[in-house]
Structures are given as structure tokens and as C-alpha cells.
Specification:
Length: 319
């Protein structure tokens, strides 16, 4: 039973969090010019000094920037569309990534300044409703893209499913629902955003969650569709541990344990710290670096910290 492994999970994740944070503290900060290196090889060597802006931002927070993002999303995105005007006949779509991340980032800002709760209440409720519009086909699928009116789009774009995104959105929604006493939303978060995508996305005998899926089971057009990604698994660990903490349903902890075992057998580098992010379908390492243009000091330490905090509560131990 997974419940009997809680202490094991806590101890291993605590050690892993220490290794991971130490890896970035040692190798990432640019003491000469400021900012953070994010292209870091398996042993900590910086292999490219380019500082990708979105990963710099993930290592800092800014309320002023949040206000601009909300303006672009809800009112006028002209500023960020300059040089990329929509083409005639182009179908306008809405991605799940936008509302889920607005819900996440506004929550994080509120933890820094509780007075922001009232300021972001409206955008958070808007984000919840927009996220729910991606629940399609009578609640059986979470589609990554929908029309601006919240309906299914035609073709490959409309059929695209990203299990990791859906599951990550699930724990954002569950956290929001718990904080606001919305039991129905909490159940939707678990049933539709977590259980459904996990059931569809978990691999065959190789294990791990696929990156992209097609709702009608056609071959996805994304070339990396069969890869097994670090962030998908870190977010799934958080989601199902949170679902277990909320419901005490042992099935959710069993799912957490399945993902945990996969990660600590394939992603984790116990010797040098941090995780190998990109795995092949069979779980072998595809790219050896620990940081790159799309992987920085974010998903792994956040997941480990949240999991450690939840396990501390489950074990009644101080964080």
C-alpha cells in the first residue's frame, strides 16, 4: 500500500530537493553580469550563456508585469501581436495555457502580498471559467485549444490533448477550489483534469506520460509526441498528492506512487543533482543537459517543495 511509503517518499523528496536547489545555486547565477544561466549540462557546465527571458522571469516575480499580462489577455493584445498580424481566414483559438497560468501566477503573487487577493479575484474567476471551457465531449476530454466561444475546433489543432497541461491545470483548480470552498469545482478538477488525462496519457509497458495525444487517436503531428517530459511528471506528482490530501482516497496516492517510481528510476540524477528532462519513449535519456531553453529552475524544485510540504502535513511533521 502506498500509504505505508509516505515516510520513504518524504525522505527521498527532501534529499532530492536539497540536491536540486544546490545544483542551481552552484551553477546558475551569473555573478559578473547578473541574471541566471539556464543552459547547463549534466555536470553543471554552462554550455550556452544565452539567458532566455521566460526562464529569468520564472526565477523572479513582478506585480507590474502581471497587470500588463492581464491587459493583453483580457483587453487588447495589439502590443504583443505587432509584426504578427492575424492572417485572413486564420481561426482564432484559446489555449488552456493562458487561463491556467494566470490562475497560478496570481495565486503566487497573493502569497507575497495578501492584499492582492481582492485585486485578482475577478481574473481568477475568469481564469477558472475559461479553463472549464476546455472540458469537451461531455466531460471526457480536456482539449488544449478551443474556439473563442468555447467550442471544439476542427482538425489537429482542435483534437490536441496535452495530458501534462491538463493535470497541472487540475491542481491549480483544486487549490483554488479548496481555498474558496467550491466542492463541485474540486471534484471536476480531480475527475476531469487529473484522472481522465492520466488514464489516457499513461504509457504502455514503458510507463510515463506521453507529451501529446490526439483526441480521436490519430497520430499527433508534434514530432516529440512520444517523449516523456520531466515537467509532465513533476506536475502529476503534485496533482495526485494534492488529490489524496484533499480526499484521502488511496487510489490517488497509488497514482502518485506510480509516477514517483517512474521519476526516480528515469529522470533523477542522485549523484549530481537535478533531473534529466527529456526521455525517449522507453525511458532512456534523450538529452543529457539539466537546463536548456525550455528547462530551468522551476518545475522540479517547485514540485519537490510542494510535495514535501504536503507530506509534512500528512505525516504531521514540521516543514
Amino acid at each position: 500500500m502506498a500509504e505505508e511509503r509516505l515516510q520513504e517518499f518524504y525522505d527521498e523528496i527532501s534529499e532530492d530537493l536539497t540536491r536540486c536547489v544546490q545544483f542551481w545555486l552552484t551553477h546558475s547565477q551569473d555573478d559578473k553580469y547578473g541574471g541566471f544561466f539556464n543552459c547547463i549540462d549534466e555536470d553543471g557546465t554552462v554550455y550556452d550563456e544565452t539567458k532566455h527571458v521566460w526562464l529569468q522571469a520564472r526565477q523572479t516575480e513582478a506585480i507590474q508585469m502581471m497587470d500588463r499580462l492581464i491587459h493583453w489577455v483580457r483587453e487588447d493584445d495589439t502590443d504583443i501581436r505587432q509584426g504578427r498580424p492575424p492572417l485572413a481566414g486564420e481561426a482564432r483559438s484559446e489555449s488552456l495555457a493562458v487561463p491556467m497560468m494566470l490562475l497560478c501566477v496570481t495565486h503566487e503573487l497573493q502569497t507575497l502580498d495578501p492584499s492582492l487577493c481582492a485585486r485578482y479575484r475577478d481574473i481568477q474567476e475568469w481564469s477558472v471559467q475559461k479553463a472549464l471551457s476546455h472540458v469537451q465531449r461531455e466531460g471526457t476530454v480536456i482539449l488544449e485549444n478551443v474556439s473563442t466561444s468555447g467550442t471544439e475546433l476542427p482538425g489537429s489543432l482542435g483534437r490536441l490533448m496535452i495530458p501534462g497541461h491538463a493535470i497541472e491545470a487540475g491542481w491549480f483548480l483544486l487549490r483554488y477550489a479548496k481555498q474558496n470552498g467550491q466542492d463541485e469545482l474540486a471534484q471536476k478538477a480531480i475527475d476531469q483534469f487529473m484522472n481522465g488525462p492520466f488514464g489516457r496519457g499513461w504509457g504502455d509497458e514503458c510507463g510515463g506520460l506521453y507529451y501529446f495525444l490526439d483526441a480521436d487517436r490519430y497520430s499527433p503531428v508534434q514530432l516529440e509526441c512520444n517523449m516523456k517530459m520531466w515537467w509532465v511528471h513533476t506536475e502529476t506528482m503534485v496533482a495526485f498528492l494534492m488529490a489524496y490530501q484533499h480526499t484521502r482516497d488511496g487510489d490517488h496516492l497509488d497514482t502518485f506512487a506510480r509516477v514517483y517510481d517512474y521519476c526516480y528510476s528515469n529522470h533523477v540524477d542522485k549523484k549530481r543533482g537535478e533531473w534529466f528532462g527529456y526521455l525517449n519513449r522507453d525511458g532512456s535519456v534523450s538529452m543529457r543537459f539539466k537546463g536548456g531553453p525550455w528547462k530551468g529552475c522551476f518545475h522540479v524544485p517547485r514540485s519537490l517543495l510542494y510535495c514535501k510540504q504536503m507530506m509534512s502535513e500528512l505525516l504531521k511533521r514540521p516543514t
